[in-house]
């Protein structure tokens, strides 16, 4: 099953709504905010998209912490958690710079 992406939704000159995918044509925030044709490449929208990404990563990290706490794993059991999962969580929690690279 393929997930549908939300539309850009910006009001067009004809009065309708833009049907392009949110963030279409933007290199750093696909699926978030307006498309490139409706101002999605401006600094304001890039910053807003970065804030959304940070908020989502923080929510994911919080959920992961709660789940690990509820499992009450011993340090030996925590070490047995697959390395790929630990790396993915660490990547989401790591602070990033404005261009998407890890600080």
Rg over CA atoms, rounded to whole Å, is 18 Å
Our measurement of the CA-to-CA distance between the termini, rounded to an integer number of angstroms, reads: 35 Å
Helix share, percent? 40-55%
**Average pLDDT:** 75
Strand content: under 5%
Total number of strands: 0
Order of helix and strand elements from N to C terminus: HHH
Helix tally equals 3
Contiguous uncertain segments of 5+ residues: none
- The gross shape turns out to be elongated
Report the structural category: mainly alpha
* Largest β-sheet summary: none
Describe the structure.
It is built from three helices and no strands. It is mainly α and 103 residues long. The protein has a domain at 51-93. It is elongated and about 60 Å long. 13% of the residues are buried. The model has no long low-confidence stretch (mean pLDDT 75).
Q: How do you describe this structure in short?
A:
By secondary structure, this protein is mainly α.
Topology of helices and strands:
Layout: H1 43-71, H2 75-79, H3 83-93
Task: For this entry, give a set of tags.
103 residues; mainly alpha; 3 helices; elongated
């Amino acid at each position: 099953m393929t997930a549908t992406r939300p539309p850009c939704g910006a009001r067009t000159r004809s009065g309708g709504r833009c049907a392009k995918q949110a963030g279409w044509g933007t290199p750093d925030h696909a699926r978030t905010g307006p498309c490139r044709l409706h101002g999605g490449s401006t600094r304001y929208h890039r910053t807003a998209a970065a804030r959304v990404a940070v908020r989502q990563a923080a929510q994911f990290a919080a959920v992961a912490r709660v789940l690990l706490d509820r499992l009450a794993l011993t340090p030996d059991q925590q070490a047995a958690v697959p390395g790929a999962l630990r790396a993915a969580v660490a990547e989401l929690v790591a602070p990033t710079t404005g261009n998407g690279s890890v600080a």
